[in-house]
Amino acid sequence: METIHRPRVDAIRALISEFLQSQLDEKLDELKEGDTKRAKLRLKFEYATWIDDAANRSVQIQAVTHSLKPIHPSAKGTNVYTAPSQLPDHRVVGTHCLCDTFEGDVAGNAAALDVYKFLKLSLDGRSLLDLAVAGDADLAAALTDDAEQARSWLDAFAGVAKQRGRPASHTLAKQFYWLTGEDAHDDTGFHLLAPLYATSLAHRVYQTVQLDRFGDEAKAAWEARKAGRFHPRPVREYGELAVQKLGGTKPLNISQLNSERLGRNYLLASLPPVWKTVAVQPVHGVDSVFQRYGRRREVVRLVRMLRDFLASDPAPNIRTRTRIDTLVADLLDELLHLAAEVRSLAPGWSQDPACRLSAAERLWLDPGAGTEEGAAAVPITDEAAERIAAGFANWLNARLRKPLPMGDPEYQHWRKLALEQIEDDLREAHDE
Amino acid sequence: MSDTDLTRQPEEPSNPAWLVLPRLRVQNANAISSPMTWGFPAITAFLGLMTALERRLGRGAGITLDGVGVVCHGFEPQVSAGGYTRSFALTRNPVGHDGSTSAIVEEGRAHLELTLVFQARVASPLLDAAARSDLVHRVAEQVAGMRVAGGSVLPHLADTPGGPHRRPVPELVLTPADEEEARKAFRRIARRCLPGFALVSRHDLLEARHAELLAATPGASRLDAWLDLSRWNHRAVLHPRPDGAAPPAPEAAQPADWQQDARPGWIVPIPVGFAALAPLHEPGTVAGARDPHVPFRFVESVYSIGQWLSPHRLRAPTELFWFAERPDEQGLYLCTNDYALHLARRSNASPDVQPVSSDQ
């Protein structure tokens, strides 16, 4: 016989009674004084009656942390309820990161959701559902004095968090193979993986993003930024955030938490950089490719970042140097990209009279020009790479000079960073 | 060298090679890469394609594909423009057999242009250039009829970037045994991928940020670090005083500059595989499984940080490739890439190129 702690039993009873009273009051408010349904309602919300009814209805719902419905609303199969702390602590991000503070979700008949509300009542940080799953003797005693009856109700409630029946997937669910063996031709070397929707995890992400977008503190920080005033909270922006609607007009058909999110789920962007929107044009009408390069949006952005960083007078340490070199490397990436774009044009474009580029730049950007019929191949020289690198260093210094004193040491540094990249690029352009 | 000869004498392919499928144009690929990310398809989709391709070619083809590198040249998401958030075009599924409307399932789509580079091993008959050329033709044919991340492969058009004079031709290149030669051969492939961006793993940044957050807030999780790296953080910085004295304690009303944290390159949150939610079910024990002959497992997506970077930045071929790990004892099914490992080695050799792990 398990020991029963009377004060705890009383506390649970009080919790449940309070819940029933508030549910009843809510329902009564919807009815007129003197309506005959009021008496019926009061009967329904009598302690033992309601619990018996709830225990019966508990089979209609299931507590989940991972659900199938968001994958496809018509899919039927196994859902999973696992406390995040029970999952292995992987080195990547997943539901296990939620630890002890997580919101369980519930799927099933919306008409039985009040049963889940009841099971989420918590005492000392543990929900009635947790207690039911653990077979808590105090909860049993709080439900009824009839031990046998209590046990059967407890089992019914615990069943909400348990997997029911044989595990099942569905044709509308996602299922795919993962090669676990060495040989892709061996049919036995695979596992079939069926991903479920991590609804508790999605809920945490949703709440975080909501707070960062619409929370009072976040709004205050936004306003402070607009006014150029200090605020201790950072402003957080989720670029290219997408909203995925689950369940259409009936988000409750998916799950309780989905309904609380109004069926909206946030998807973070993992977009690749996209560098071109217009067709590539020959570099005509400018004296140097840097005139075109400097107008690229990403280049403008990077130069601004570099200039702001240098203007903030950062401490002269390795961190600062790395930051600067990283930004310059990004600028060089853009330059090599531009070169690759221009090289995709038909060779010989640099021989047009409209092209005013230097010989070194022509050699670099139009390597095929010299191979046209009748023309002699132009030999590449180290000088060409050096000229282009020097051109880059000059251009960058000019761009930064406005607010900052830029001199020879900076020039030499930019030149050094550029030279190796351009030498490689030039050589390989001619290797083809 | 014909295929039948190869089937008659099966041999474990052991000669390292690279298979390059340049400039694939894919229409309507799946742009919802996981329950929490959208944009470029998940790397698992390309590893799946790799396995499917190897199986289609058959054992007799004498080629094994071990890893895949993905370079994106173009990306056109089919989403709403304008406003703060993006939304996807809705699709109405066909009505049910009783005429009732089916549920709406939102699908995100994107048109892609990409180059796939596979780390391969080939059997000795493929040391012959003509045999490789035959195989490459077969590969191109197969891929044209396959789904790539749920999208269909379009034939190459003359007016696509790259131009008619540079028609992209698939290649099967033997990896030179000499290290320097191998490096050169790879650099040539990488340069052919320009302009474009390769996706590599920056799991190291997630770990570093997690450690930083933990130092400031005990109990901070990898999820917190992941979200922190997935957004732009702007912080208020007080104006320095003209006399050079330290600024006073920050107060809400003081004038300040707002600065955006710099990021170490173009980093993005990505799904990197799956974690088991339950033990492995024996073959045939799960109702509704599409294959009763293999073990079955319920899983969830897991996430890390990736970086898009220009392929010419890659110093070694292994920095490009993603591999599918066998499930570990904790039931983790992971896609891995070694770029960060190489980066760390490089920075040990020369502190000048240490990665910037944090801006705080």
Automatic annotation (TrEMBL), chain A:
Organism: Sphaerotilus microaerophilus
Organism superkingdom: Bacteria
Protein name: Type I-F CRISPR-associated protein Csy1
From TrEMBL, chain B:
Pfam families noted in UniProt: Cas_Csy2 (PF09614)
Matching CDD domains: Csy2_I-F
InterPro entries assigned: CRISPR-assoc_prot_Csy2
Annotated protein name in UniProt: Type I-F CRISPR-associated protein Csy2
Source organism of this protein record: Sphaerotilus microaerophilus
